[in-house]
Backbone:
């Protein structure tokens, strides 16, 4: 049978199409497992995983932790806020100390782009990138494309628009890589100030008018405005952003077709999407969360099978 | 690689009928019994047997499921190849039912050990039995024995017993195949 071509999951950029297909096929089986009366399998009972979160997270951290526990792995949790990082310890020292406790795998979120790649060159454990700054968030892109496949049958040929703060979004970059690898057509839509300069090199369509983007697409992935990463003002006001780039029910109903609405969370209700859209039948936001656990179980399972005893 | 025929299509058919009859003898009309084919290769045998019970023995309501044991195996990270999962399809409750595991070849017994753990995720069966088409005795790593067996075979570790079904290989037959060029006789 096939095997993942990588030892770490640092970004979608390093994956092949066959890797993503293998992850999806494995996730199908785990999705069945997490819908059983007893949702746990003993596969990883001799694996210890450290979740290192140097940046805040709710659903990604919970999702990873749940995935690890459903696979019977032992789990260590670490958040930078309550740690010696505050005392000036370096990343490698922190991680090496944790690895001395015989940890096999590291799930890491870090504010600096490339933190996972850097770590992979210095330590022997498998690393899963759970978000590195504005760079990549590979498991989010995998669960997003998996959710599209589940909803629409396949990803190939589908038209997907990513709307909002592309500049600060690791979800956008990982999604663009994953969607293109799987053969989807990709468009980004947002105010020019929130589109990165290198966007044309990624081979995606660029649109600044939300209505035109929605008329073109099958799926709209609405991103959160990342206020915490904005050092300057990128648009005049939140109200103006919501008027120009927010989806509401009237806008959806004015389209002459049904589109799928996605959101990686957390939602700023009333900014990028209104409550009635977030809770409508168009939205698959909660399916994304459920699929997140299955996808992370698949990634952890497949990477763990490459760890030699 | 040489191989010899152990059972031909006619013999396979006779054994299938005998196993069906033995099942009815112990389980009556199968109303409290569920048949579970073990993925991947036990499912062909289980499907065939369920079909036979339905058509030739007029048993109407047969509960048949497929169980994948990949995530319950004890050789995760011990083999060079990763273990790939198959579909589990059990859309009924096994709580308080008589469960019959169905697999093609019983060898070390480790798959059945995994299946016993896996089935617990679906409830607590009243009773669990094992039906295998081929029982390779003297090869067991665990104290597991079949309740129903098609044929007992004394094959050595260097040999492989391959059960073919029309559905997957185009013919009903059982072969003993030599690995590593050892000669069978």
Residues:
């Amino acid at each position: 049978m096939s095997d993942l071509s990588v030892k770490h999951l640092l970004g979608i950029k390093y994956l092949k199409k066959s890797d993503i297909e293998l992850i999806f096929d494995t996730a199908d089986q785990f999705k069945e497992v997490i819908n059983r009366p007893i949702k746990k399998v003993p596969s990883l009972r001799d694996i210890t995983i450290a979740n290192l979160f140097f940046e805040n997270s709710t659903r990604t951290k919970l999702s990873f932790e749940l995935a690890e526990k459903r696979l019977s792995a032992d789990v260590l949790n670490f958040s930078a806020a309550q740690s010696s990082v505050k005392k000036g310890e370096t990343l490698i020292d922190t991680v090496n100390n944790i690895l001395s406790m015989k940890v096999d795998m590291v799930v890491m979120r870090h504010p600096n782009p490339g933190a996972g790649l850097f770590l992979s060159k210095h330590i022997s454990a498998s690393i899963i990138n759970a978000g590195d700054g504005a760079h990549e968030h590979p498991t989010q892109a995998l669960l997003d494309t998996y959710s599209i496949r589940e909803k629409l049958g396949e990803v190939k040929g589908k038209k997907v628009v990513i709307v909002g703060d592309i500049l600060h979004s690791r979800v956008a970059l990982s999604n663009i890589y994953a969607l293109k690898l799987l053969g989807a057509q990709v468009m980004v839509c947002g105010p020019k100030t929130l589109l990165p300069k290198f966007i044309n090199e990624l081979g995606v369509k660029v649109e600044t008018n939300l209505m035109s983007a929605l008329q073109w697409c099958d799926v709209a992935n609405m991103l959160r405005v990342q206020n915490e990463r904005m050092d300057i003002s990128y648009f005049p006001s939140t109200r103006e952003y919501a008027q120009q780039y927010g989806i509401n029910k009237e806008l959806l109903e004015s389209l002459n077709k049904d589109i799928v609405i996605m959101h990686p969370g957390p939602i700023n209700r009333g900014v990028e999407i209104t409550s009635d859209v977030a809770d409508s039948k168009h939205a698959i936001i909660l399916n994304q969360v459920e699929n997140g656990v299955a996808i992370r179980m698949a990634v952890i399972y497949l990477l763990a099978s490459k760890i030699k005893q | 690689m040489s191989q010899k025929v152990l059972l031909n299509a006619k013999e396979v058919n006779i054994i299938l009928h005998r196993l069906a009859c033995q099942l009815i003898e112990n389980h009556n009309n199968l109303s409290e019994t569920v048949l579970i084919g073990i993925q991947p290769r036990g499912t062909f045998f289980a499907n065939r047997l369920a079909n036979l019970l339905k058509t030739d023995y007029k048993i109407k309501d047969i509960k048949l499921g497929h169980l994948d044991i990949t995530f319950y195996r004890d050789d995760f990270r011990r083999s060079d190849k990763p273990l790939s999962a198959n579909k589990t399809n059990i859309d009924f409750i096994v709580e308080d039912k008589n469960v019959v595991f169905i697999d093609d070849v019983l060898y070390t017994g480790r798959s059945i050990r995994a299946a016993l753990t896996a089935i617990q995720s679906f409830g607590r069966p009243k009773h669990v039995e094992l039906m295998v088409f081929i029982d390779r005795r003297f090869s067991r790593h665990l104290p597991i024995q079949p309740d129903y067996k098609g044929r007992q075979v004394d094959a050595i570790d260097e040999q492989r017993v391959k059960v073919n079904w029309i559905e997957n290989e185009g013919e009903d037959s059982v072969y003993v195949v030599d690995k590593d060029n050892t000669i069978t006789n």
